[in-house]
Amino acid sequence: MSKHRVGDRRIISISLPEDLAVRLDRSVGKGKDGRSATIAKMIDKALNPKPNLTLQKAVKPTTKRSKGVRIESDTMGDLEVPGDRYYGCQTARSLINFDIGIDTMPRGVVRSFGILKQAAAKTNVALKQLDGEVGSLIIQAAQEVIDGELDDHFPLRIWQTGSGTQSNMNTNEVIANRAIEIAGGELGSKKPVHPNDHVNRAQSSNDTFPTAMHIASAEAFVHDLLPSVRALRNALDNKAKQWSGIVKIGRTHLMDAVPLTLGRRFLVGFPAGC
User: Is residue 147 part of a domain?
Assistant: First the structure.
């Protein structure tokens, strides 16, 4: 690459592919603002890139919870709990005592607990066993559990006591603390919503866990199993019709039997209304 000076400018000879040079001339021409000026601008831009001034999208805070730790208390004493979690002492102790495996409680069971706690709050309010404002806070927080908005606050493993006490208390604590936050209170204060006295009112783990399992099973049956069985039925029915004209030899006891169509092999009986 040869080079010569003309005043404060340096003339540099460069080699370009013929087709690229032709396209450059067609695009910008020759003259003062022609290809030389264009190439100079491109080199300057490459050597002095502009800073990226693109503003990052603001992340909307989802909660005012701190990310440190807080101290929660129950009948067994005080315990440190992550400041950005809604669960309390009972859940934290279970994580320590039952640190077994990585399988957490299924989403369907967590959702079912939300349905159960919401129904209990509505019933307790209707029976005048629970203050209306407290009940409203519980119902609102339970709906977030139902919708899956608080799934990160249910860390318990499936390995726990047989009665499911820890999962029941996990739900009580999450709903109570979320309700407290909605009311503008302090997490862990148990005011104005208490996990036992309010969220768990008139309930026992011996009842709530089996009830949640029944709800989860019913929802899985209606939303997952039945649609899958219907899809299988339709697929087999379509194949039966598609292959109704294909004749094959039947087989029974390892011997040839009377002829039948391949479609008949796919005829399956289903209960009416399935």
Answer: yes
